[in-house]
Amino acid sequence: MDYTLEVSRSVWGRLQAVILLSLALFISLASPASAAAISQGYQAAGSLAPGTLVVQESNSNQVAAADVAHTPELLGVVVASGDTTLAVGTSGDDVQVVTSGSATVFVTDLNGAIKAGDMITASPIKGVGMKATAAGKVIGVAQAAAVTKSSQSVSVSTAGGGKVSAHLTSVPITVQSSYFTPAAAPTKSSTPQFLQVFANQVAGKPVALLRVTISTVILIVALCVVSVMLFSAVRGTMTALGRNPLAHQSIYRGLWQVLTTIIIIMIIGLIGSYVVLTR
């Protein structure tokens, strides 16, 4: 009898969890303007206030304040238990951590002022995030600019042993752990833009400056040779016809031979230029 009762309680507990999860999903779909936050209960290593950025310690259900040295283990943001749509955990948990949805996190301007759309990662200050400027794991995206008027000033030690001043404030973010890769800065090139674009389209990939230059030189040389040959052939043909009109058949035959040679040279130049671009 006792065994049956325990099984019934276990089934009822699972049924409650399914009902709560379904309710949370329904609320999130019914209110798309505000992302529903789902939090998980964890044991805390020390005192962790709501807004603290945390990492999960290996092989445990314990979280600690995050810093830049533990960026790959970023987990989420500590929130008050009543600030989430769905809070999952047990009675022994110390804090609720949002790993998906909206939350407010402590941030600093050590990596520059934070604006809406900036990626947030861990900073040298434990539990505080900052703007991500280098490749690495991030915890989410800022939904508003950080206001520094009401911020708190702190002094942070640098790797060289010096001190820098920074401001602490908070900013709402959409929590979504991911890997961030900053966009590469555009490189300056002496190649005309239209020529570089044309070369890239022909090759189907970005082409180095040296290859574009060699390909262009090949085409220019071919065009020069063809132009000289064509001018000489036309001029010679007109002169020959003026001197001996009766020999027009042999004169035209020679002209066609020159034109055929010109076409072959042009084809060779185009093929050579294409090979240089695509090799």
Descriptive account of the structure:
This protein has 279 residues and is of the alpha+beta class. It has helices at residues 2-30, 193-203, 209-243, 248-278; strands at residues 38-44, 53-56, 62-65, 74-79, 86-88, 95-108, 119-122, 129-131, 136-142, 152-157, 163-180. Strands 1, 2, 3, 4, 5, 6, 7, 8, 9, 10 and 11 form an eleven-stranded mixed sheet that branches. Strand 10 (152-157) and strand 11 (163-180) form a beta hairpin. Helix 3 packs antiparallel against helix 4 (248-278). The protein is rod-shaped. The relative contact order is 0.09. The model is unreliable at 1-9 and 25-34 (pLDDT under 50).
Q: Beta fraction of the residues?
A: 25-35%
Instruction: List the helices and strands in order.
Output: HEEEEEEEEEEEHHH
Round the mean pLDDT to the nearest integer and report it.
79
Strands, total number: 11
Query: Number of helix segments?
Result: 4
Blueprint of the fold:
Elements: H1 2-30, E1 38-44, E2 53-56, E3 62-65, E4 74-79, E5 86-88, E6 95-108, E7 119-122, E8 129-131, E9 136-142, E10 152-157, E11 163-180, H2 193-203, H3 209-243, H4 248-278
Parallel strand pairs: 1-3, 1-5, 6-8
Antiparallel strand pairs: 1-6, 2-3, 2-4, 4-6, 6-11, 7-8, 7-9, 9-11, 10-11
